Amino acid sequence: MPRYNPSVIEPKWQNYWEMHKTFATSRLPAGEKLYVLDMFPYPSGSGLHVGHPEGYTATDIVCRYARMLGKSVLHPMGFDAFGLPAEEHAIRTNTPPRISTEQNIDTFRRQLKMLGFSYDWDRELATTDVEYFRWTQWIFLVLFDTWYDPESGKGRPIDELPVPPEIAAKGESEVSKYRDRFRLAYLSDELVNWCPALGTVLANEEVIDGKSERGEHPVQRIPLRQWMLRITAYADRLERDLGGLAWADGIKRLQTDWIGRSDGVEADFAIAGMTDFESWKATRGASGFPATPDSNSLRVFTTRADTLFGVTYMVVAPEHPLVARITTDGQRAAVESYLAEVSSRSDRDRLDVKKQKTGVFSGSFAINPVNGKEIPIWIADYVLASYGTGAIMAVPAHDERDFAFAKVYGLEIIPVYRPDDADEQVLAGKKCFSGEGEAINSGVYDGCRTDEFKRRIAADLQKSGLGKPAVNYKLRDWLFSRQRFWGEPFPILHELDERGNPTGVLRAVSMNELPVELPELEDYKPHGRPEPPLAKAPDEWLYPVIEGKKYKRETNTMPQWAGSCWYYLRFIDPRNDKAFVDQELERAWMPVDLYVGGAEHAVLHLLYARFWHKVLFDRGYVSTKEPFQRLINQGIILGEMEFTRPQNGERVSPDEVEKQGDYWVLKSDNSVRVESRAHKMSKSRGNVVNPDEVVRDYGADSLRLFEMFMGPLEQAKPWSMAGVNGVKGFLDRAWRMIVDSRAEEMVLAPAICGDAPAPADLVVLHKTIKSVTKDIENLSFNTAIARLMEFVNHFSRLDRRPKAAMETFVLLLSPMAPHIAEELWEVLGHSKTLAFEPWPAFDEKLTIDSMVEIPVQINGKLRTRIEVPRGTSKEDLERIALEDPRVREYLVSPVSKAICVPDRLVNFVIKS
Ligand code: ANZ
User: Fold this and answer.
1) Mutate which of 258, 268, 302, 349 for ligand 1 pocket (most atoms within 8 A of beta carbon)
2) 594/581 Cα distance (integer angstroms)
3) Which atom of ligand 1 is nearest to the CA of 397?
4) pLDDT, tens digit, for every residue of 171-180?
5) Strands (E), 234-289
């Protein structure tokens, strides 16, 4: 037994922690709190992969360290368990998704426990737990019950929405429908990418050239009544509040770009023939720019109002509501055929700059408000209905997309800027110029620089009621429904009339009737129509009758993102059946102090969760504006490095190569460089590493240590079994430094003694404490481990190893390799877990090397070295050197001269 045997000690300590509930957290923090959260995993059928433990080990180290500092630590774990694979499995095998989900969770839980993470398992939850999604539904109802008040810039209860008297006069159901238009959760006819063959709606990213990416099935753009969440109302706050967060700049930038704030101007163009331009302009001058355009004008959004004089045509999106009205009889056939042609193209395809632009003339003209010129209105799909106003003023001289379009259709190109290099091509309208310069062809604005022009024209348009500053966001409202079974049902009922047709009135399931559970289905298969599988639920579920009125339940389910939007709140109070979280507990534990997870969640999950949090904040349910104060993304773990010969691509075994500086070379011939590459782990490449096997062969502590030792947390790193073996070797040495591995029993190594450490050893000890402490605080675990390795190298060589120093070492090692540390702690004579031992303190004075070794020469020849405190004076140096036995041996005649340089050298000159 005295050999280091992880397969015995790891289960022993895992049982100990579990039995003693070592890591159970009190309801309220006692003293300083620390909330450390991992992005909870999706429990897939293939179990944990080695990427998961990377972030989980990092947070575990932080938590174990913080407990030793006396902090109250909240460190929970759960499962994000709704999702497609469970449903697909159900379709194949006809087993309810809950069963495969629970099996997968069992595997994940076992594997997480096998790695010794210090979670408070009493707080475990899964988004699929009925008691959990009851509150997901409850939060949905909060969103449904909230409207965004632009005046106060926050979400407010829907019954505080001002209802116009003429609506109020029409009665309750009209008021209800009016309110529905303002709710943060609302129904809307959205153009979706519907793929009948796959039986689902697809995201824009999943449609290529009008076909599904998976399977290449035809995709139709159909309007489908979908639940939407009004995240756009929070766009500016979501952007602004990033400022106060301790997140990597890269992630902040991704979020900012996704939100995509764009500052510009909205301007109206009168439509020729529908109104008299001069009187239209006069009315505008008198009444100002209306909130919605009048029916005879076309509103555009532009970031370059300073190019108004260069507008040579207009474009409306094919879905623009004015299309029918502006299409003249002569153009109708052409327009209709164009609309049919583009109807299946996804937004992504439409925006692809490489694709040839297409469009059709509507037959109508608009009038440029700055110069009264008539310009043709085109219909083209490079303008999206969902952005800005769905219509643009086209300036081919200065916008690349417009330029390309004008070239295809032979439209006029009028430059209104002279580039600073006076490029002739631009001035001749032969080349597009999107930079800044000096205005030309622009009437009174000629000679203006871009910035000044923008400011002046915006003010002038506003004064004449023709335009106003406007902000647009790339961010779209969040399409929140899925035509799926394995998701949270919406707690919404559609009122039916006597004949069973929907009246359009929505009713929220009352809070005390939550949760709305998923019904049992006979068959989960999609049927090719866009009705969700829940439409096949038994009538008792589908058609509830309340107070004599018949309703149909909403049959869409929520997307997988829903459950992960608020799990961090539930962890604070996971078994509360009165509220989603107790307010006192929420105030005590929030915000999450450290959140660690994969960079793939940089945008959507983090944006969605922040949005829900802000709504809950506005409605007074949570106390912080933001949920996650500090965010770290761990780098991905790649497969083992692969080596090839550059000449012929032939594979070289990792045993045959070694690193030389930045390169890899052949061991047999260092002049031959080999190429190295690490690929993403994937089943098809066969380079996936299974944590079960690593733990079986090396132990969980070695896996943990290796994952941290590979390199900086945030970097991508290649896996290496040799590296795991290397850290295992270090743990073996650490073990032998303390335990007598030759004894029959578990006893301390004979070298362990009660001495105080010698001065030089004390310095090593304090330096180690200091660097490990600093490194853990900076999440620089790889260097912390390197310091511990140096410690073992130093102390293993000593014949007398002070027990106190060994104890300190074990405490320092414990956050990273907790099982071996607990075992060594026990061998060192302790009967309780070390999890709450005080973290070792260091003495700054002792971390500076206080002793120096000084060469002693006699007649310029080195004879010995002496160790003295740094700064020892000349006189003392001379005295100490003269006392040294070796020196005395060589001093065969009296010293005629002593040269002593403090901290440097001593040289005695004697007559030879
Ligand atoms: C005239 C103009 C001249 C424009 C110029 C640009 C350069 P961002 O920064 O992305 O907000 N645009 C507006 N709405 C659009 C829509 N629904 N679909 C496609 N394009 C649209 O870009 C705003 C610019 O994108 C707007 O400014 C408009 O073209 C175009 F030299 O107006 B611009």
Assistant:
1) 302
2) 20
3) 31
4) 998 999 999 9
5) 246-247, 261-271
